[in-house]
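Folding Task

Wanted — backbone structure
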Amino acid sequence: MKKAVQISILIFMMLFFTTASAQEEDKEKQKKTRIEIIDGDLMQKIEELGPDVMRISGNVVFKHDSMYLYCDTAFWYNSTNSLKAWGNVHIKASDSLNIFGEELFYHGDKHKAEMRDEVKLVDNQMILTTDYLDYDLAENIGKYTGGGKIVDTTNQLTSQIGYYYADEKNFFFKDSVNLVNPRYTMDSDTLMYNTLTEISYFFGPSYIRSDTNLIYCENGWYDTRSDLAQFNENAMLTNNRHSLQGDSLFYDRNLGLGKAFRNVTVIDSVQNIVILGEYGRFLESTHNSVITDSAQAIQIDNGDSLFLHADTLRYLGDTAREEGKQLFAYYKVKLYRVNLQGKCDSLVYNVEDSLIKMYRNPVIWSGKNQLYADFVKFFTGKGQSKKVHLLGNSYLSEMDADSSNFNQVKGKNMYGFFRNDELYKVDVEGNAQTVYFLRNDENELVGVHSAQSSDIVIRIHQRKISNISYKTQPSGKLYPPAKLPSSEATIKGFRWQDHTRPRDRYDIFRWEE
């Protein structure tokens, strides 16, 4: 049984290869049809070139299979089934494909035409011009070297080397590729273009320039008819002072909309702001960007850059001056700078006046001090903290030498001031309360002062509370350490949140309540 199967397989393979061989032979015979002379005003033999060489001139017409060839003068080499033609040469390959030139050498057995000088290939979708074109009429594939140009209804493309696949209407361009569109220009190392769909495909470093932006990528496609595009590999869209980068970039020129995916970067070179994430959108008309997924904003400063993270970052541009105007951060916001850290639920950063507004459970840490309130306004400038406003249920606290105790201040509103990027004074206005643990020169705890006053001034030295001044006579009591009631140890509403404080620029991605 096994032997019979093997014999059957052998017979099948012999029949298959015999049939395939016969098909190839038929194809070769079909290829080697003879060139026919249809017309010519004058025909004469050229004995010095060979016994079967004819010179034909005046309204010359040849036919080879379904192809017609017209010229002023031709040498017809019957023995080699070839010819040389010059003067107004015209190959009519089909109803939709015509090739014109000044000089031609045609290999009939191979169905290959070598057209030279002022060559023009015309089909229904485009016109190709070059001085050097080789065309395979059996495969419908053309090639030019030494420079060529195609023009269709919308675009003009030039390159040093080009291949045209007529059946698929595909052009493959290589070396110094340039596409000119009424709205932009493209420059690429390698590009494929379909004349039916008018879609370009990039392979290698490519630039797309317009009056409004510059696009760079190393792989992708561009639909020149609908102005939709997909750019990959180091993709970047630059709009004057802003840029959007990502592993891949989708672009709608009609809407002026760019979408970036993975390793996304938005750069405002004027404000020195960089926004990072895994997904981003950029709208050219408003210069607005939205970044999500591991979103991070960096205010670059040589001395102390600010790092900020949130679930979503929205950067609003100034359309009049093309500069960034506001940064909105939504949900689980954390920020880090060497001398300042913070967290809140949402935040607005006004770039022009360097004002940060923090909403919903905002907390700021400066040195050993923790500050929080219902709402916080933080003023910065030139990479340094200037002042902070804590509005509504404001608290200032620091850990005492004994880690179980905390110096605390509460008031309606607080106004903090910075010098050399460090908090040195806080003014408390309205319903001020304090709990302060007093220590002697030997750092021994000698008492706890609990007091109330309308307004107070707090001085901070070396990042610690050094003095509390009451603007009006305070009411309160000084307790010996051992007799401090537990109810007086903390002010109502006090929360020590140091475990949520970011310790470095990478800690902004960690969130605890």
Remarks:
- Residues 255 and 365 are 43 Å apart (CA to CA).
- The first helix runs from residue 2 to 31.
